[in-house]
Amino acid sequence: MNVPFLDLTAEVAATRDAVQAAIDRVLTRGWFVLGPEVEAFEHEFAAYSGAAHAVGVASGTDALTLALRACDIGPGDEVITVPNTAVATVAAIELAGARPVFADIDPATMNLDPAAAERAITPRTQALLPVHLYGQSTDLAPLLDVARRHGLRLIEDACQAHGASYGGRRVGGIGDIGCFSFYPTKNLGGYGDGGMAVTSDPALAERLRLLRAYGWKERDRSVVRGTNSRLDELQAAILRVKLPLLDGWNATRRAIAARYDAAFAGLDGLRLPGEAAYGTRIYHLYVVRLSNTARPEPVEGRAPEPHREAFRAHLTGQGVGTLVHYPFPIYLQDAYRDLGLTAGACPVAEQAATEIVSLPLHPHLTDTQVEAVVAGVHSFFGR
Ligand SMILES: *Cc1c(COP(=O)(O)O)cnc(C)c1O
């Protein structure tokens, strides 16, 4: 039995006819950028997120960059985020011209620790940028409180959390702006790049609309310095087919996660992802942790921590694909050395980086594939 870490072909097969019809509709109309499909999808996605407005852009990275720029955050400003994220989060902060500042994570949720975020605030801080990692919401209430007390914006990186909730509300619509990616592997993915920024503030929505298209209020009238970051009609039409299926797919992800949880309970040295009591997790990734006693500090280029690698090698031998999200805290990667941070800056995130492994989990895994993952993990632990 072969269980690739991810395989999108089953999802393509399940939606092919409807997607084909949507593509044909766009081709027949002959309108390919910022047209009726994007507008309809923006309304549908805003309603889904519980935000008043949604603005389609070219990627999740761009959604984050334009969100910061819409809040007038740029050169001279600092934005507090986590070191255990897709490099895109940090790239977006720097693309806006601001400086990323890293705060450590809560060891239970692996998301931004509100107390650490508050300690990282300086007179230059303008925003908090928590990441709802792996589909688990960050604990937003204490962060919103920190933001309010210090006069900061709160921008949600919800690129891994389409449909996750916090206190009964969907994430993305809770902070000032929520940012989503439609990269093909996300819980809601297009067949190319795409992104969305959602907000309930009409002034921010207007700024986002200007920034994504050359700052044009009307054609050839730039009222701010903008860029070109547009969602295209083909992606929007495809995403409109898939949005109504998202909740069902997320429920299937949760059901598979529950099967893993039950099968792996009590394995000594294996920590399960768990779910915070404050919200519904949508398992963009199912990430376990292999505990260790001694390990080298996680420095890029150095041999990875042995126990986790032995686990991965064992699963590879059983035909089960795994990945690590993410093996190196951003500030320990070569491109970010000049931020001046060294090992020890965020010890909780650094330790987690040596322990985490992502197991295959997507809505089109078959029962036999789920059983093969369980058997592979059990055999590593001698069960
Ligand atoms: C995927 C992702 C992004 C970036 O999205 P792109 O559409 O690839 O630019 C940003 N943040 C996180 C946490 C992500 O997982």
Please explain how this structure is put together.
The protein has 2 domains: 238 residues, Type I PLP-dependent aspartate aminotransferase-like (Major domain) (Aspartate Aminotransferase, domain 2); 135 residues, Aspartate Aminotransferase, domain 1, CATH 3.90.1150.10. With 383 residues, it is α/β, with parallel strands linked by helices. The radius of gyration is 21 Å and the shape is globular. Strand 6 and strand 7 form a beta hairpin. Helix 3 packs across helix 7. It contains 12 helices and 14 strands. The site of pyridoxal-5'-phosphate has 15 residues, from helix 3 and helix 4.
What topology emerges from the helices and strands here?
Layout: H1 9-29, H2 36-49, E1 53-57, H3 60-70, E2 78-81, H4 87-95, E3 99-102, H5 114-119, E4 125-128, H6 140-150, E5 153-157, E6 165-166, E7 169-170, E8 177-181, E9 195-199, H7 202-212, E10 216-218, E11 221-222, H8 233-242, H9 246-264, E12 270-271, E13 286-290, H10 306-317, H11 347-355, E14 356-359, H12 367-380
Parallel strand pairs: 2-3, 2-4, 4-5, 5-8
Antiparallel strand pairs: 1-9, 6-7, 8-9, 10-11, 12-13, 13-14
Bound molecules: pyridoxal-5'-phosphate (PLP).
